[in-house]
Amino acid sequence: MATDRWAREKAALKKVQLHFDFRQKILRLIRYDAADANLNTSDMVRKIVGLPYKKIQRTRLGLSFNADDFGYLAKRYGLELKDEKEIRRRVIEEINQHYQQQEDELDG
To answer: Do the Cβ atoms of 5 and 11 come closer than 8 Å?
Structure first.
């Protein structure tokens, strides 16, 4: 079991990360196509050039909040700074409401 894990980690170390510069318009189209295909942007590029890729199993959005961000959000939501779990919940709630409102406006 441990040797299998080591082999996977060793293989991961051999991968080379490449960075590509695309025109802003092309980058935006890649992002849109990736979202429509339920892929991340790097997997969309892999798909386009014929490389293997994996569909996202669980769609998630990663955000990083620093101490100042948490301070701002705590104040905005009227919460204690230490209540990070509730702050996160409120962010999710606000984002859901924002997009639900947009969806309702399009349907209305």
So the answer is: no
